[in-house]
## 1
Amino acid sequence: TWKWVVGPMFLYLCERLVRFWRSQQKVVITKVVIHPFKTIELQMMKKGFKMEVGQYIFVKCPAVSKLEWHPFTLTSAPEEDYFSIHVRIVGDWTEGLFNVCGCDKQEFQEAWKLPKIAVDGPFGTASEDVFSYETVMLVGAGIGVTPFASVLKSVWYKYCHDATNLKLKKIYFYWLCRDTHAFEWFADLLQSLEAQMQERNNAEFLSYNIYLTGWDETQATHFVVHHEEEKDVITGLKQKTLYGRPNWENEFRTIAGNHPGSRIGVFLCGPEALADTLNKQSISNSEADPRGVHFIFNKENF
């Protein structure tokens, strides 16, 4: 038995040593941004840190806990000179991080007072393959939208730099949230992308649908009077917020009809129940003919 155990144990110990060495490298918090609904953004720098879209890191804050490591998706783009994460305050550890970063104080926080942070990673996810397709469906549920913040930022940087060499030609973005609070920090990015794409006369590049799943049409009746306004009253975007849950069968059929003979990447960051639904739709709407439309499903969740 020992012959079969020694090899894997040696590899495991090597991996632990590499992770320990990486976690000891100095990380500098350059900026802390407080977003609505108790969500904070940490912008950091680390020597030699290289990332791809959609990757995640493990974070430890010794001032909160000397042993706990927590995974967070990177929300910055590889083209930016820093890396960032968005942290929603939902438990003891995140509450402690919120406090040690001085977010509970009204006065300006000096940089030297910010806590030390240890970072391990980045680690790869399925979202890295976004740029391998001409057409993609991005589906985020709640805070699961964070990897697509990185994707959309990177798409914009690549589009501005050299749009002709960008293989990705069409993005269908779906964001599902139970309440309006979760929209507030991410809507700014969508507003910026929406305005910039219109300036370049390519508004069709990004199609997005935002669903407020905790409400239905009867609960949203008082918003109907504002439906004819240019911008949505909840998100401030031109695309109006939809209520309830999407009809995935209709969405897949419509996209398949718009892109015959294409390989379409379907990327999800969300719960298992939604993953099962999208996986079944990807299979049922893919054609048997190799020259027909094919949906390739990719998922990630913590």
Note: The first helix runs from residue 2 to 23.
## 2
Amino acid sequence: VHHSKLDFFCKLGYSKQDICKVLENLGQEALEDDVLKELIRMGSKPQALESQAQPAPPKLIARGSCSTSPVSQWLGGDESDSSSHLRPIVIDGSNVAMSHGNKEVFSCWGIRLAVDWFRERGHTYIKVFVPLWRKEPPRQDSPIADQHILEELEKQSILVYTPSRKVKGKRVVCYDDRYIVKVAYEKDGIIVSNDHYRDLQNENPEWKWFIEQRLLMYSFVSNRFMPPDDPLGRHGPTLNNFLSKKPVLPEPTWQPCPYGKKCTYGNKCKFYHPERPHQAQLSVADELRAKIKVPGGLGKEEEPCTHSP
């Protein structure tokens, strides 16, 4: 009898200690209703109710813990790598070298100046295309200055020679401009050249748009490589936004009102007034309602007042 009652109340969720105490007080032959009343009077609760009454302790997460989501890890890695925001650079080596040599000498030093300028900005992908026959010793009709720079850039995997060969004493040269535009288009990068590539623009409409939007022109001022601050004109992006994949929008600047304190437009004036506090632009009717603050229910429940004579 003791075991049967013990199992019965254990199934109800009460602890064995409380059940044994009640059975000792009431006796082994006590009715189940009496045992249940005594358990309730003692304040004993089933274990299921106790677990519901006690909420689970909150999980504390330390700030800056290593358990971050994949999205935050990706964002953190993207922010740390500043070079990922910069566009690849493809340099027209022949155009840059001849520009630095005043269109008379193939100046390899001009290529080095351009490469160093982009390196200092943090660009990691820089490619320079030069015809292969520039490896040959210089001649009177094609002088080359500082030819050893080409070998140094080739060892650094920056300079790429476009193929050329000789057939029956005549030099057969591949069109290096096509290499330049094609690589820059595939890499979604920037073309550094003063050439407009009009023949390639007419050849492919996609290349036409790309050359118009991604061509970076330059100048050499006292052996200094200087691209313009506005590559696409006065109304175009800045040089930093032009060379980056994620352009930074400038902060809006407030233009002061030309009328000053004599302005009669009030809050509807779109110019900046330093003497006026910043507030929401309300219409005249809304301003009057806010000042008067007439209660909405006034006049609806009015009843004629009867006065005694």
Note: The longest strand covers residues 126-131.
## 3
Amino acid sequence: STDGGRNLSLDSIPMGLPMSDPSAWATAMNNLGMAPMGMTGQPLLPDFDPALGMMTGIPPINPMMPGLGIVPPPIPPDMPAVKEIIHCKSCTLFPPNPHLPPPATRERPPGCKTVFVGGLPENGTEQIIMEVFEQCGEVIAIRKSKKNFCHIRFAEEFMVDKALYLSGYRIRLGSSTDKKDTGRLHVDFAQARDDLYEWECKQRMLAREERHRRRLAEERFRPPSPPPVVHYSDHECSVVAEKLKDDTKFSEAIQTLLTWIERGEVNRRTANNFYSMIQSANSHIRRLVNEKAAHEKEMEEAKEKFKLALSGILVQFEQIVAVYHSASKQKAWDHFTKAQRKNISVWCKQAE
């Protein structure tokens, strides 16, 4: 439907609309001028004002001219959009009364890409349905019922919103006024297993990505694991034996030796090597004892130093307290003001 493909624009009907079917076009234009009657006897377009063409400074409409000739002013984003007539190749869609409340819809199912379309003309074919709804986006499938309804599945979720825009429109096939060639579209969200399955797959994928992202973030802040201890071999044994003799590398080497013994690396062939490494470890005990003695000596010296410093501090404290007591005797006390006496008393208590 190349003719109607651009007509879903909410702002205006394009000026250069090709005339696909002159009789359908004439019917549509006549309807604009003389509010057409529907099946129930109600006007299809009760709010149409024939003088609208004059307001825009354009001469009165010729029903056969290609293009409507009415270009309404652009709609501010906060105002409700005025729905326009939509022309397709084999049918015409007339907008609902703008004063009526918008058609009710059910709650949108998660991941909805399928719509229910009711109120189709009895003579409406799958081709006509495709012509009307492919303007909303790529149609994946149409499941038509023998009754006047069908289900349409789109490629993307946003296309469903475009299809819902057509709800309430009256559809007329060609220029016919036969009851079987007219209908009022009712478009609503439909629950489809395929949509739900795709949506659940998408949610699971997003959850997997989120877990992966969290894991990466956690690993970034986790401290690195210590390198694994190598398995025993004659070469590694000689390396560890050398490290056991070195005071700076002793801690690392003794941990390796312990791991080897716990792993069960000791056997008849390796026993002598392990014995010599244990002997090397034993020789460090003398060094550790000497280090302990040296630290104890340092601590004793520090204690003596602390005692000397503390006794010096206490002597000075006693001297300061003696000054307070001396100042509190009658001979000196009478010469101080009340505030000075109060301060001296407080200082004396704090020092004691």
Note: Confidence is low (pLDDT under 50) at residues 1-22, 31-80.
## 4
Amino acid sequence: GLSQYSSDPRTEWDLSTYSTRDQVLEAMRSLRYKGGNTFTGLALTHVLEQNLKPEAGARLEAEKLVILLTDGKSQDDANLAAQTLKNLGIEILAIGVKNADEAELRQVASEPLELTVYNVLDFPLLSSLVGRLTRVLCTRIKERSNKENADIPVNTGPQLSPTDLKISAVTSKSMHLTWGPPPRPPKKYRVVYYPSKGGVPKEVVLDGAISSLQLSNLTSHTEYLVSVVPVYDLVVGDALRGVTSTLPLSAPRSLRVSELSHNSIGLRWTPAQGATQYLVLCSAAPDGAED
């Protein structure tokens, strides 16, 4: 499977889209470069929530590996998103090209770093990594498969998925989330939220017994995307998603003129809730306008 990202991640194809090597290679040859910013944290969250799902071809009994290829420093928190994947047993290999930040690659990648972090000076040099990466990946899969003998759920389905996301008490800076827990309680919830027009994703991790959350310090008059992801020991359930907009900041009302003289104007208005200062702008009416 392959996802390409800038400020907004995009799935190019899922794990189940192609069934032969030739089909994958042909898809690679047809791939078009996606320009833009470098929001690596958002991309890793996209991979977790969209690409490592049974409906996208991810088999629950199979090892999960993510290869991150980047040529820049992330403009959001890649480490937080990467840590979430690693906590779920997902292996991350980080490959940097040109201007990639090696310190960030080492934060994002799984241990041991000598096997999972690579950095080359230019794109043609990536070909020199293919043989070693192939051996590392195959060896890691075999090692981890031999270690893990725990029972794994056959599929997620409704047993592992929360329901009925409700967003209430929306203000200019906050909103309240509630949801119905799945029949099988999760170990924890990941709540991810960010502005729909681009912005740094933020994440809150809750105990699996909690099914509500107050989001605060939001930006006014902004549409937010919200995801509630149930996390189990060996699997991630289907995410609940919602979208809502914070209210605009309240405005002063009922502007009235009083104490009018030849060189002064007195003003009165109904205060705006939460305002700490007012900026009053005054200019002469244009020619021909009413005095």
Note: Residues 88 and 215 are 24 Å apart (CA to CA).
